[in-house]
Design goal:
Blueprint (H helix, E strand, L loop, with lengths): L1 H42 L18 H7 L2 H32 L6 H8 L1 H4 L2 H11 L6 H8 L16 H25 L4 H9 L4 H28 L4 H6 L11 H10 L4 H31 L1
Length: 301
């Protein structure tokens, strides 16, 4: 009897444990797994506004093959990689410089660091609108400032030029992302032992040798995780493009997330839009796996 009661309690405890995780499991299945699986299925159909009520028909990988011959998709792919790598480079280098600066205590450092966080806390729609005004060719403050200093004679069309518009969005996203990089890197720098730097100073190592032989090697796990997270966040930027340029001029600021939106909600070609999202999803899955591997390495270290 006692053995039967013990088994019953064990079964009840197991049921209770699963009951507690059931809401979370349902949430993950309903809001994460199902949308991803539905998008994969949708990307393999020809669903559009004309056959929406019929549900479209199965076309397999035809949408993905069509993307390879789509000039706008290829331009969006190129723009996305340029955008991502340019943003990561400037966000990381400027953020690392500020992290080294604010890792040293000086009067007003906390206030300055808090002020720099404003750009990260602002919604991207607000930041995009702000920089659209700043970079405006007609009344933008940047043109007015450069003209007052004598750098230019006539206004530069930052967001209306096909060669400059993408860099306008890059500047905006860099301004937004610098504080995130700075905070993560400051956290990494504060975990480094001061004894290593004191020993290097006694051995006659200069600032550059200390940075390249102590700081960078010890910060490698943090840097890798930061860059992978930065790639994931940056590669899905949509709101800045929508607010500032809407993919123009001449598709020069067309990024993959925005092109997926255009296909799905402007041309109502849901199958093709889903296939663009599928490409983004594949890239992000690969990066997520790399992120998890680097996180595990850092835990072991």
């Amino acid at each position: 009897m006692a053995k039967w009661n013990k088994g019953l309690r064990t079964a009840w405890d197991t049921i209770t444990d699963y009951a507690f995780i059931l809401p979370t499991l349902l949430f993950i299945l309903g809001f994460m797994v199902y949308p991803v699986l539905y998008n994969i299925w949708l990307s393999m159909t020809d669903l559009n506004i004309m056959n929406f009520r019929l549900g479209g028909s199965w076309v397999g990988l035809a949408n993905y093959k069509q993307l390879l011959s789509d000039n706008i998709f290829m331009a969006a792919l190129k723009n996305t990689f340029l955008f991502v790598f340019a943003c990561l480079f400037f966000q990381f280098t400027i953020g690392f410089g500020l992290a080294i600066l604010f890792n040293n205590k000086f009067p007003g450092s906390n206030l300055m660091r808090a002020a720099l966080m404003i750009s990260w806390m602002l919604p991207k729609v607000v930041a995009g609108t702000l920089f659209r005004w700043i970079l405006s060719g007609d009344f933008g403050i940047l043109n007015q400032f450069m003209k007052a200093l004598g750098f230019i004679d006539k206004p530069i069309l930052w967001l209306s030029s096909s060669s400059l518009a993408l860099w306008g969005i890059i500047i905006t996203n860099v301004w937004i992302g610098i504080p995130f990089n700075m905070i993560i890197l400051i956290g990494g720098l504060q975990t480094l032992s001061e004894e290593l730097y004191e020993a290097a100073k006694i051995d006659g190592a200069g600032p550059w040798q200390t940075f390249t032989r102590i700081t960078l090697p010890l910060m490698r796990p943090t840097i890798m995780i930061l860059l992978i997270l930065g790639f994931i966040y940056t590669s899905k930027v949509f709101d800045l493009v929508h607010v500032m340029t809407q993919g123009g001029p001449l598709n020069s600021t067309q990024l993959l997330p925005y092109y997926s939106y255009v296909q799905s909600f402007q041309f109502f070609n849901f199958g093709k839009g889903a296939s663009v999202s599928g490409v983004i999803f594949i890239v992000l899955i690969i990066l997520s796996v790399l992120y998890l591997r680097e996180s595990q390495k850092e835990e072991v270290m």
